[in-house]
Amino acid sequence: MASAMDDKPAVQHHETMKDEGFHDAAERGHLATDRYGNALVTFDPKAEARLRWKLDLYIVPTVALLYLFCFIDRANIGNARLAGLEKDLGLEGYDYNRLLTVFYISYIIFEIPSNMCCKWVGPGWFIPGISLGFGICSVCTAFVDNIHSASGVRFLLGVFEAGMLPGIAYYLSRWYRRSELAFRLSLYIVMAPLAGAFGGLLASAILKLDHFGGLHQWRMIFAIEGIITIGLSLISFVTLTDRPETARWLTQEEKDLAIARVKSERVGATEVLEKMDTKKILRGIFSPVTLSTSFIFLLNNITVQGLAFFLPTIVKTIYPLDSVISQQLHTVPPYIVGAFFTLFFPFLSWRFDKRNVFFICSAPFMMVGYIMFLATDAARVRYGATFLIASGAFSFGALCNAQVSANVVSDSARSAAIGTNVMLGNIGGLN
């Protein structure tokens, strides 16, 4: 229990915050935390609610849409496979798996460098820039004619997409408090299961077209979805801003409040946004929290990425006599259920300010789903199992990244830790 001597400085600090205002407190690097890192400074709840609403309105929808098409541009190869990609490119044996692996080689290698670059360039420029890059890669995939050109484009796609998940997580950590972060992360990570649902619907709609320019069948999927991505990236160059100080849509008082809120929780930090520090970067990478959470994320991603790339094929084995469009539509419902749980568990995490308990709650869904899938050949039971697998798997993304961000303090360490978490986690895609 804290003594009266322990409480007195916090009260004085709180009064200082009132007297100086948010701007001075942010500038001087004041910290109001107890010995456990919990914020002691309190802010006007109504002012915080108004600020959160603005952040949720201006930032989250933009990054969520970009991540939606990031995942679509990555996973649409599964839809293209059903539409004849393997036959047209002359793929044999494990060639399709090699295309998936090539993507993950570059995706994993560039995770940490990308997030360091995101910090250096600024998320407001970096995130739209890489979105433009992977949109162009998607369009280029429509014109490949053999495994070699397809592999080259998939490698570049991995380079550009590597910075997306950790970059957005790092970006949101500049704006939200620790207790708020998991749910906000879930608002864009939910786009992964929605990409499976929406991607299947969009692919089905595209395949109903006779042609798109001179392109036919699966080539139309890559071209049209890539063009949409390019358009969104150009818009995001205008709508995203690096940090509160440069946000045109915040008043000065709201900017000061945004800075002070985040700074009040960064124990031992004097700057919310600091210069690159090699020691802090290494500390973030090798933090026990980072490494243990990354291992959990790795195991989870074996399930997530397997579901993303192979659900269309699984559905085809369950419903072999259905049309291609019908098979595409059967991939949608499991993702809808997965999307619900992606939001549900992080929402509870926000309300109760707990994360570990929801790790535990998510795992049994996947375990039961795989047991059902492997224990029977009954089509309806195996299809039902995919719902349970999706329910447990997709909720981990937001919780893992929030866990790392909340427990690594400095800006440099946090950007490196999030990059490490996503990098090690995505080794699970090489299954």
UniProtKB/TrEMBL annotation:
It is found in: Membrane. Keywords: Membrane, Transmembrane, Transmembrane helix, Transport. One of its GO terms (cellular component) is membrane. SUPFAM superfamilies: MFS general substrate transporter. The chain crosses the membrane at residues 55-76, 96-113, 125-144, 156-173, 185-206, 218-240, 285-312, 332-350, 357-375, 381-400. It holds the Pfam family MFS_1. GO terms for molecular function: transmembrane transporter activity. It comes from the Eukaryota. It is a multi-pass membrane protein. Residues 59-431 form the Major facilitator superfamily (MFS) profile domain. InterPro entries: MFS, MFS_dom, MFS_trans_sf. PANTHER family: PERMEASE-RELATED (PTHR43791), TRANSPORTER, PUTATIVE (AFU_ORTHOLOGUE AFUA_4G01000)-RELATED (PTHR43791:SF48). This is Putative mfs transporter.
